[in-house]
Amino acid sequence: QVQLQESGPGLVKPSETLSLTCTVSGNSVTSYYWNWIRQPPGKGLEWIGYVYHSGSTNYNPSLKSRVTISVDTSKNQFSLNLRSVTAADTAIYYCAKEKLRMTMVRGVLTPLHEAFDIWGQGTMVTVSS
Amino acid sequence: EIVLTQSPGTLSLSPGERATLSCRASQSVTSPYLAWYQQKPGQAPRLLIYGASSRATGIPDRFSGSGSGTDFTLTISRLEPEDFAVYYCQQYGGSPWTFGQGTKVDIK
């Protein structure tokens, strides 16, 4: 059974970089799409972006200029960096795995996107001086 | 960006009653790549339904999803005490993936 665990500082100063890591256990990061999602206190969910084990990424345009998501296959981890943070970035940050779905495209097995079937427990990050 | 609007904002029902939650998209959701999640206080969301109507592993059959295009529904046939929570819809047919604002199902 795949399990995810977020780690990183719980407090970040304004204008600095928020850095979080998600450690994957029970399976390899060399499968699936790996995502970051956040939830401000008392509010709804916002998708931040994903990374595939090949290193390909896709980000929410609302955050694209400040976000980098990367994968480290040697450590079985993936990471989130969010630059130039403000109080508006205060939130619970979740890492999540997409459910696996593959299809044949011109004879090549290709991953398709699916819903988030495994989530980490979440980590609260507060932006404050 | 596809905007998802959930209604109602809050649904007050009693255990044993049927719950019907709506999720409307601002444009047609491809193929239908729509999911429903349940979130309880202090917990991460849990996947209930994917592909608009397929139940995730371990989800009881009292949960069902339907719909296509721009209109989707989550139905809980008979509410159990553990079903009182917030429910979110999410589309993954067009980037960026987006969530609805949530429907809270609380005890009447």
Features:
A: 129 residues; mainly beta; four-stranded antiparallel beta sheet; 13 strands; 0% helix; globular; B: 108 residues; seven-stranded mixed beta sheet
Q: Please, could you describe this protein's structure?
A:
- Chain A has 129 residues and is an all-beta fold.
- Chain A is 0% helix and 53% strand.
- Chain A has strands spanning 3-7, 11-12, 18-25, 33-39, 46-52, 57-59, 67-72, 77-82, 91-98, 102-105, 108-111, 116-119, 123-127.
- Chain A starts with a strand and ends with a strand.
- Chain B is mainly β and 108 residues long.
- Chain B contains no helices and eleven strands.
- The interface between A and B is medium-sized, with 21 and 24 residues.
Shape of chain A: globular
SSE series of chain B? EEEEEEEEEEE
Helix content of chain B: under 10%
Structural class of chain A: mainly beta
- What percent of residues of chain A are in strands? over 45%
Distance between the termini of chain A: 39 Å
Question: What's the order of the H and E elements of chain A?
Answer: EEEEEEEEEEEEE
Shape of chain B: globular
Largest sheet of chain B: 7 strands, mixed
Proportion of residues in β-strands of chain B: over 45%
Total beta-strand segments of chain A: 13
Q: Rg of chain A to the nearest angstrom? A: 15 Å
The most extensive interface between chains reads: A-B, 21 and 24 residues
How many helices of chain A? 0
Helix content of chain A: under 10%
Assign the structural class of chain B, choosing from mainly alpha, mainly beta, alpha/beta, alpha+beta, or little secondary structure.
Answer: mainly beta
Contiguous runs where pLDDT drops below 50 for at least 5 residues of chain A:
none
Instruction: Indicate the multimeric state.
Output: heterodimer
Sequence stretches where pLDDT stays below 50 over 5 or more residues of chain B: none
